[in-house]
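User: If only I could read backbone structure tokens as easily as an amino acid sequence. Underneath my words sits a plain record pairing an amino acid chain with its backbone structure tokens. This is the protein in question:
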Amino acid sequence: MLKANKPLIKLNNAAQWWNLKLEKEKILEMVIKEAHDIEFNLVEMRRHFHMHPETMYEEENTASYIENELKKIGFSPVRIAGTGITAILKGTKDGKTIGLRADMDALNITEKNDKLYISQIPGKMHACGHDAHMACLLGAARILWKYKEFLNGNIKFIFQPAEEGGAGAYKMINEGVLDDVDEIFGLHVWIPLESGEIGIRSGPVMASSDIFEIKIKGKGGHAAFPHLCIDPSAIVPEIYNALQKIISREIDPLETAVLSIPVFKGSNAHNIIPSRFTLKGTLRTLNSTVRDYIIKRMHEIVKGYAEAWRCKAELQFIEPSYPTVINDEDLTEKISEILAPLGPITSIPPSMGGEDFAFYQQKVSGVFLFLGIKNSEKGIIHPHHHPEFDIDESVLWKGVAIYSLLGFNKSFIT
């Protein structure tokens, strides 16, 4: 919940306050105008990215396109984390460095839309909106460069690879992307919100994301003679049900946790008892204490059931795990007021989806916010990661305006 009416401006006299008010209104007016002026280019860029999707750490053509666009503006882009790109804009006044991040990678999904800009790469698709994020951040780079005399401090544009399971943020941080950054902001187009709505929330906003694998070893053989085998598949239902009972029986009902196990791999024939059985799944929480407890109990349950039925079992969590996305309370309140003229702004519920933006927030203060793209009249209703996912391109200008105002936000404070 946002706190009400906290003053953002600390000024010495009425004249100074009035001058800042006029400058703030001027910045807002020019940002909105410039964002509308480049709408055609935004759609063009977004469709280029959409037609040429590349998955994690393979975004070579995407990176080259971004580099060229940044060079046209006047930047000197730098590669990082393989296919990642950064660029620095120095303001005319001293101040903090603000990081603005857009993710770059697509998904291994075959698109099923009938649009002119459908993916040209078989089996790959921008099904999460990262194409829009890149276009919006490039548009903001153009505006912020043009009006850099209004900037207090610097802007660091961060185009990040491998958000979809590759922990690209983690790799970029290890290579120093945040060494000169004081605050960071990320934007995600969001199908649960109506087109044009801005969604924001302080505190936990997206869940931690852990990937785990359970390997059970027994003794295989002919399915007609189970007494001569040690069947690892026999204990899988018990392990599955016991793990689910951690959530329903041992976690406070007011806490939020999800444990899903969608992958079961055992025998590939009806008459063979396998010697090994593998389960894979994900754990999502909004509370690190709850997460730690669930992981502890998972280990105990897997070990206990395996030993009871003469099997051996191993539970392994695949690193790095994504932490919870936690928005800084004061920063969330401040930017909510700055973005209010773009409205409407909605206080959104937490999502159990994961986001590696959380890694940045473990190092510096940051806010991750959302821009609605749902438009039933246009048939834009399908969820993220769906083969018919699309975005309402009429909101791209607002994404540019959001990024731009986040870049200018220090110019509203003295």
Notes: The radius of gyration is 24 Å.
